[in-house]
Specification:
The protein has 435 residues and is mainly α. The chain folds into 2 domains: 204 residues, MFS general substrate transporter like domains (Growth Hormone, Chain: A, Up-down Bundle); 196 residues, Growth Hormone, Chain: A. 77% of the residues lie in helices and 0% in strands. α15 runs antiparallel to α16. The two termini are 32 Å apart.
Amino acid sequence: MSLLSFRLKMASSETTPCEPVFRGRDYFKITLLVFAISALWQSMHGYILPVRILDFVPESQKNTYLGLLTFTGLILGMLIQPLAGALSDCSRSKWGRRRPFILFGITTAIMLVFGIGGATSYIVLFAGYCLMQAASNTAQGPYQAFIPELVPQKKRGLASGIKNLLEILGGIAFAGVSSVFIGRYSRGEGSRWLWLNLGLLGAVLALALAATIIWIKEKPCSLPAEKKSLWNRAFGVYKIDLKRHTSFAWFMASRLLVFAAFTTIQQFALFFFKDVVGVADPAAASFRFLVISVVGMLAGAYPSGWLSDRVGRKPIAFSAALLGALGILLILVLPKDVNILLAPAAIIGVSLATFSSTNWALAVDLVPPGEEARYLGLANMATAGGGALARLIGPVMDFANNRVINLGYTIMLGTCALYLIAGALLLLKVRAGRS
């Protein structure tokens, strides 16, 4: 028996008499869809959209058009997810509160995936992508509530770790597939490679959707329905009662800073290897850095979630953020050699996966009953906000580099380390969740 199977079996046997039975396979049932969603967006953002953009816009303006497209979609998805989550929180459908939203959102996203292939202009591509973001986040907001609703309190760290692990695996698997298929399409070997890639993504989404709808049995909601109009519910989606949920506000601030640091490193890695390390092929060097980071992520994702059920979420998330700061400081002080820099890459990967797993488990503990999907959607707004914050340092880097060679990269790395340290310290303000 593998270590993972043994731990899942042990976890499923640790249910107290007052808790519902939650077996090992149930962890995969409630996290399977995240594999397909991760596969979709890693393929779209990494390969499909950058190549499809070139079918419609000049080569010299590709970054501008791609940035406009993805930034708009990011903002739209960031707003839609907590809204859909809040609407599902107050739903009383006989199908369950979450499954109707998941069915509608993923089915619509599948149709729009093929719309990306059939786009005849940049405007059509832009509209299709934004609608696909809206559809995907309509499903993802309600879907995220399954962990706090269905997983016993003492097993949520493990469930969050498995969710993070499947997210990583989905992204890795389909990044590899898409790099081959879209590479052939971009070399002019025929549109069939594009359609094959899109068809495979659609099939994976459809299978994950069917499994989720069939396998997951929602609990009937025992909370009274709120007598609010649809407008009042929508207007209050983005509000947090700071008096009642102060810890959640500190949690979001911490999450924003930590993910801003990790996203900044990812965003500017290629230019760092080009300008500071001076390698001949910066794309290959940044890919090696990414691969080693992913290995570290795979090593940290599952064990950290499992361990957080035993020693608590905050100590592990706090340590993970500081470990990430250490990895970044090592990049600053170590010789600028690609092979040497692979060591801090592994440290950063372990840090990211460990923080992601335990921090999400902490979010699940903090969400108030009856508003699980809305608050988890707000937690992901902090993630998206971190991504936006990461891009703001670009002009600062250019300004500094134009005055002192590569000073901007030193400022960037130092800022990322400060983000992580500040994010760790903000976690100390978070009080324990509903346990």
